[in-house]
Design goal:
With 831 residues, the chain is mainly α. The chain has helices at 7-38, 68-92, 100-123, 127-151, 158-179, 186-193, 197-204, 209-229, 233-259, 264-287, 292-311, 317-330, 341-371, 388-392, 400-418, 427-449, 453-473, 488-510, 514-540, 551-584, 589-596, 598-610, 616-634, 638-655, 662-683, 690-710, 716-736, 742-761, 764-792, 797-811, 813-829. The chain has 31 helices and no strands. Helix 4 (127-151) runs antiparallel to helix 5, helix 13 (341-371) crosses helix 16 (427-449) and helix 22 runs parallel beside helix 24. The longest helix is centred in the last third of the chain and has 34 residues, at 551-584.
């Protein structure tokens, strides 16, 4: 037994020990202080005396949650709001209770007093109060304008009067803010109010959308002038924000009109506004360094939309995209213009945005060329389509397909031209983009020109070969006129992805005819295998003593990965080629399954040849996947499934001859042999499997015993596991379907004997296998009685028993864990 105190008692013991240690530490610290004072002879020091506990201090007053200025501002703001509400209510609701003279005198007097009071308050240094009263005065002036409209000008146009009133109020507030320059509210309020007169006058005059956009642009120009040439900081900040808002609104209106114009003349009117806005934005980019990039970006986009909008109505939609792209490309000439660097970057970013939109417009065509052939997967070897567009399932009326290669090639050329001027960190991405865009342009070319089916297949193979050649070229030893080593991994990765995608697309495209399928798979096998062999020069070309940080060592690492990927693709292509050849010969599925097993066998031989080569293990695993395909092809024919499993076991057993693959392959071979035996017994309707399994089990156990004698460190699972499983597991499966008692009894006795032998000899395999089979056999025999007993019990009893069981398990959780740990350690010591 374990004499461990209960948790509460142990906690009390620990608390007492800690208190004793703390008391002793306090005594030692006091003595140390006394001794230190003795060694410093400055004044007599009394020995430490025990001190009475200090009286409890009064609780501190809670800290205030708000500062006095915050309270002051809140009160002033609330007072100003209440006064404004009262003034509005007086003006709108109670206006009719007074005559014309009384109304004018009251409102005018209050407004004049409110405008004059802030100056007096500022002299007394009451700045916050002056701000509140000044804001109230601005609200009163708005009410004065409203009262003037109701009394003196009731028949005036509401929009026109509002525009004039806003202009007068903006001018008056600006003058008031300049006169009382210590107030911060009037000038920003004047700037905000100045945004309304021109647009409202345009609406009042019934002007069109272009005129309204011009009014917004003129307002934005005025805001820019205020932001550039005025001194008060709040007004400049507000003017800067309103300039972006008004200008952006004008650009959106003009851009929409330019894109939807029906003729070049109709597009020229909004185009002129866009060019004017671009000039204003470029002026801001030159004068304001902080906004140079954003302003130049807006200028570039506006100029592109203006120029492309004039061309768009004269050409089809597909060529209009090319026009916009060329207009955006013209912005790249700004790199030589005498502009600030940030402005140049903004114009280049505008060009990049136009190129990105054009590429996105062309991407559906690329996706159709890649994924379109998959739609014909159900019509394998039914005949060649009439054209490339029919093969990918697109009609002749798709406008994007017409100019997609042109857009992609222009975009690739622009990226290539910009490569030399990009920073070093952006060059890998640029060169990868050039690679991907060029490959995509060639990929969609057959559908664009609506070429024949054979030409489309040949083009797919050529693009795949080109991408693989670029992958290999990026990792060959140094060659003249090649990019810097830093960009090669990005280029090779992009080329490898393009090659894989192109290969999958051309495989799907070639399924229309038998000849195209065989030729395509054979060509891809040669391409993948040849590229893997060519990359081996880059892998082995790096000397063992090279610095890992050297360019050659960095280039060899992705080369190893790509070589492994290419080897796997070659294995997958070889598997597909074998299936196609067998189907072309008219072989049934079960025969094709056996033929596919040549791939795992060749993979095992190649893995033994490659050994520790980076492509060795991936090749073996991919070849092993062909075994799963063989099982799928043999499904439904148990005899063929058993044959496939047996042949896979032979391949695994041959692989187990290698020292580096012996444990895993040995276990897999044993499992496959046993599984093949079971499947064969099932296929032959054998009712007594022991007659076939015991002749295998006895020699297997003898061989295992001899191995244990020669190698005491050998695991019992390796020595006895396969032999025991060959008989126990099929017998267990037969016993579960047997209605008699003889087989379960014999199996239980045998399993009990195996369990006892395993416990006596401390052999893990015998103990686990025998115990598991014995438990399952016993459960099968007792299951009917258990079901009958459970049915006779009250319904509340099983939940109650389950609850008691949970309580018992929870109460003894620690002890059970200890027992399980000791059992695991005991099993671990067995061999």
């Amino acid at each position: 037994m374990e004499n461990v105190p209960r948790p509460a008692e142990e906690l009390a013991i620990l608390d007492r020990e800690l208190a004793r240690i703390d008391a002793r530490r306090a005594q030692l610290l006091a003595r140390r202080s006394y001794l230190l004072a003795l060694l410093t002879p400055r004044q007599p020091v009394a020995p430490p005396q025990p001190q009475a506990p200090a009286p409890a201090a009064w609780p501190a007053a809670p800290a205030p949650e708000t500062s006095p200025p915050s309270v002051q501002n809140a009160l002033l703001a609330l007072g100003g709001v209440l006064l404004a509400i009262a003034a509005i209510a007086f003006t709108v609701v109670s206006w009719g209770s007074m005559g014309i003279g009384g109304r004018s005198v009251v409102l005018g007097s209050v407004t004049a007093a409110a405008l004059a009071t802030p100056a007096l308050l500022l002299r007394r240094s009451l700045t916050a109060t002056a701000e509140a009263v000044g804001a109230l005065a601005l609200v009163l002036t708005v009410l004065d304008a409203y009262a003037l409209y109701r009394v003196a000008l009731p028949d005036a146009d509401p929009l026109g009067y509002t525009a004039a009133a806003c202009a007068v109020l903006a001018a008056g507030w600006a003058a008031y803010g300049l006169l009382v320059d210590r107030l911060r509210t009037p000038l920003p309020a004047a700037v905000l109010t100045a945004q309304l007169p021109l647009p409202l006058w345009a609406l009042a005059a019934g002007a069109g959308q272009v005129t309204f956009a011009w009014a917004l642009l003129a307002t934005a120009v005025a805001d820019i002038a205020i932001a550039l040439w005025t001194r008060p900081e709040p007004a400049r900040s507000v003017a800067g924000v309103t300039a972006w808002v008004a200008g952006g609104w004008a650009l959106l209106i003009a851009g929409g009109l330019s894109v939807t114009a029906g003729s070049p003349l109709d597009a020229a009117r909004p185009g002129a506004l866009l060019l004017a806005a671009a000039a204003v934005a470029l002026f801001v980019a030159v004068r304001v360094p902080g906004a140079a990039f954003a302003s130049a970006l807006v200028a570039g986009l506006a100029a592109t939309v203006a120029a492309g909008g004039v061309v768009r109505p004269s050409v089809p939609l597909s060529w209009a995209v090319v026009g916009y792209l060329l207009c955006g490309a013209a912005l790249l000439t700004a790199v030589r213009a005498p502009l600030p660097r940030a402005a140049v970057r903004g114009l280049c970013a505008a060009a990049g945005s136009v190129v990105t939109v054009a590429v996105l417009w062309a991407l559906p065509s690329v996706a159709a060329s890649l994924l379109g052939p998959v739609s014909r997967a159900g019509n394998i070897w039914t005949g060649a389509p009439g054209s490339a567009r029919e093969a990918i399932g697109t009609g002749p009326g798709w406008p994007a397909m017409t100019t997609a290669p042109v857009v992609l090639l222009i975009s690739a050329g622009l990226l290539a031209l910009a490569y030399g001027r990009l920073p070093a960190s952006a060059r890998p991405a640029a060169l990868s983009g050039v690679t991907a865009l060029g490959w995509a342009a060639v990929l969609v070319l057959p559908a664009t020109l609506d070429l024949g089916y054979a030409t489309a297949v040949a083009t797919g193979l050529v693009t795949t070969a080109g991408a693989l050649a670029l992958t290999v070229y990026a990792h060959l030893p140094a060659a003249p006129r090649r990019p810097a080593p830093a960009v090669l991994p990005a280029v090779s990765t992009t080329a490898m992805i393009c090659a894989t995608a192109g290969a999958a697309a051309v495989c799907a495209l070639s399924l229309a005819t038998e000849t195209a399928t065989l030729v395509t798979l054979g060509a891809l096998l040669a391409l993948f295998g040849g590229a893997a062999v060519a990359l081996n020069a880059a892998v082995t070309g790096t000397a063992a003593g090279d610095d890992p940080r050297s360019p050659s060592a960095r280039a060899a690492f992705p080369a190893r990965s790509f070589q492994a990927a290419l080897a796997c693709l070659a294995v997958a292509t070889a598997t597909a080629l074998i299936c196609a050849l067998c189907a072309s010969a008219g072989l049934p599925r079960e025969h094709i399954a056996v033929a596919v097993l040549a791939v795992p066998a060749a993979g095992a031989l190649l893995g033994a040849r490659l050994r520790r080569h980076p492509a060795g293990l991936p090749t073996e695993l991919t070849a092993a996947g062909a075994g799963l395909l063989a099982l799928g092809l043999a499904a439904g024919r148990p005899e063929t499934v058993a044959l496939v499993l047996a042949l896979c076991a032979v391949v695994a057993a041959g692989t187990a001859l290698r020292p580096d693959r012996r444990p895993e392959a040995g276990y897999l071979a044993a499992a496959l042999f046993v599984l093949a035996t079971w499947v064969r017994l099932y296929a032959s309707d054998v009712a007594t499997p022991e007659a076939y399994t015991l002749p295998v089990t006895v020699p297997a156990l003898v061989v295992g015993h001899l191995r244990r004698r020669g190698d005491p460190e050998a695991s019992s699972w390796t020595a006895y596991g396969p032999g025991l499983a060959a008989t126990l597991l099929p017998s267990l499966a037969a016993a579960w379907g047997d209605t008699h008692w003889q087989r379960p009894l014999a199996l239980g006795i045998a399993a009990l004997a195996v369990t006892l032998v395993g416990a006596r000899l401390r052999l893990q395999a015998l103990l686990v296998l025998g115990g598991a089979v014995l438990a399952l056999d016993t459960l099968h025999e007792l299951a009917p009685y258990i079901v009958q007993a459970v049915g006779a019990l009250p319904r509340w009893l099983p939940p109650a028993l389950a609850g008691l069981l949970l309580l018992a398990v929870g109460a003894t959780y620690e002890r059970r864990l200890n027992d399980a740990r000791r059992l695991r350690e005991s099993l671990g010591r067995m061999r």
